[in-house]
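Q: Sequence in, structure out?
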Amino acid sequence: MHKGKNAKYVVDFPKKGAKYPHYRVQNDPKIVKPIVQVDADTVPGAEFYAETKWILPGGPAEIKLCETHTHNFNEVLGFFGYNYDNIQDLGAEIEIWIDNEKNIVDRSFCACIPAGVPHGPVIIRNIERPIFHVSSARVGRYE
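A: Exactly. Output:
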């Protein structure tokens, strides 16, 4: 645990009792492992949301993270491979739908989704190595 007058700004745990919208798919926490989540609940006054996870090999052949949905805020989704010899190698294949268009990506990437643009589903296949996943938005809480 961090101490000092600024300790409230340091988050080193997943959000306890996090509630997510219906379009978020609940996955096995042994395979999709939350790391930390920053939002107005975990950092008082935060006007920014960020959530990080490790997605590990050894689970089902296909992992769906979400169904199709939209937000009233811009969102950034990032997926990064764990291959020191080639950091662009994702070590998996991700199917991500943006504005009703299917995209297949097998390299580390970020997707910037404008407010109001439908996105999802997001499906991960053929996971060979851990994937670091981050989602973020300039909003106090993910809804």
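Residues 7-137 form a domain with the Jelly Rolls fold (CATH 2.60.120.10).
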